[in-house]
């Protein structure tokens, strides 16, 4: 009897978690965009090749990414991000130029309590959006003057967070790395069970990553747990730590 009770206590939640309360976001919409630093050649949570860092990449906030660990359905997807405005300064800054960038999602920005990647199905992040893209920047792939600014008025050039619009786009041919085979796909040395980075995911199950969390019955919303850390290869843990340090 006690064994049965324990069984249901521990197993029932796992079943619920296995479906994952991921955000079913529209193909086009608005989001926030922050930026974070990853080293050149770095293999982040999806396990995309190191050469992917030669082109614009981003981490996506966890509940939209679709996994709390390793790869998720967002891995490899490309989005056209267009800067709309900033609002952390006073007054909000509306650039007089239209700046867009096509990024490929290669990393996970872990869920946090209150940071930019804190959006869930029911809770917006501090920028009033459910989704955050954390751009790898500065990057050799992106001009240093990519972000518009007005230094004489604000006294700084880096607003840190932007309100953006996003469009889901085909990576081929829109992503800058589309013609470099080495920049597409996943690394093989971590094993194909722990990496997933399609060249051009369309959302069809045959070309889109599953959720590593769902596949392994890992909780969707733990911030950090020993079990999670042990469940994934070291390189991915490092990727998550990077995302965590710089992405929130
Ligand atoms: C990205 O968005 C901008 C602004 O709307 C647009 O001019 C550009 O053509 C778009 N790029 C792609 C590849 O969709
Ligand atoms: C900077 O902002 C001030 C105040 O809004 C404005 O008068 C000025 O034209 C702006 N300069 C640029 C380069 O946008
Ligand atoms: C972000 O842009 C959208 C679309 O223009 C707008 O509705 C929203 O108020 C903006 N959010 C902020 C915080 O500026
Ligand atoms: C992973 O690789 C092994 C050996 O190369 C192969 O048998 C297996 O089908 C692959 N699994 C997936 C999900 O691609
Ligand atoms: C996925 O399946 C669709 C039809 O369901 C097919 O047209 C497409 O070629 C398949 N893609 C891959 C990569 O196998």
TrEMBL record:
Keywords: Membrane, Signal, Transmembrane, Transmembrane helix. The chain crosses the membrane at residues 226-246. Pfam families: EXPB1_D1. Residues 43-171 form the Expansin-like EG45 domain. The keyword Signal applies. InterPro entries: Expansin/allergen_DPBB_dom (IPR007112), RlpA-like_sf (IPR036908). Residues 1-18 form the signal peptide. The keyword Membrane applies. This is RlpA-like double-psi beta-barrel-protein domain-containing protein-containing protein.
């Amino acid at each position: 009897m006690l064994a049965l009770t324990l069984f249901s206590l521990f197993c029932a939640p796992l079943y619920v978690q296995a479906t994952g309360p991921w955000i079913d976001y529209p193909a086009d919409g608005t989001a926030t965009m922050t930026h974070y630093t990853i080293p050149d050649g770095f293999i982040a949570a999806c396990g995309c090749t190191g050469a992917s860092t030669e082109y614009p990449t981003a981490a996506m906030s966890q509940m939209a990414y679709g996994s709390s660990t390793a790869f998720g359905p967002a891995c490899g997807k490309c989005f056209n991000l267009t800067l709309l405005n900033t609002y952390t300064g006073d007054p909000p800054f509306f650039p007089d130029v239209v700046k867009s960038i096509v990024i490929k999602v290669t990393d996970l920005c872990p869920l946090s309590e209150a940071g930019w990647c804190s959006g869930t199905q029911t809770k917006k992040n501090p920028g009033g959006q459910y989704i955050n893209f954390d751009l790898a920047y500065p990057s050799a792939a992106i001009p240093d003057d990519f972000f518009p600014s007005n230094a004489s008025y604000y006294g700084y050039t880096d607003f840190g967070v932007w309100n953006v619009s996003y469009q889901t786009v085909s990576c081929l041919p829109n992503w800058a790395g589309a013609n470099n085979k080495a920049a597409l796909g996943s690394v093989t040395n971590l094993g194909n069970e722990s990496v997933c980075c399609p060249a051009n995911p369309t959302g069809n199950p045959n070309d889109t990553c599953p959720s590593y969390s769902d596949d392994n019955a890992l909780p969707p919303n733990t911030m950090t747990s020993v079990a999670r850390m042990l469940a994934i290869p070291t390189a991915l843990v490092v990727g998550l730590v990077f995302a965590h340090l710089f992405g929130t």
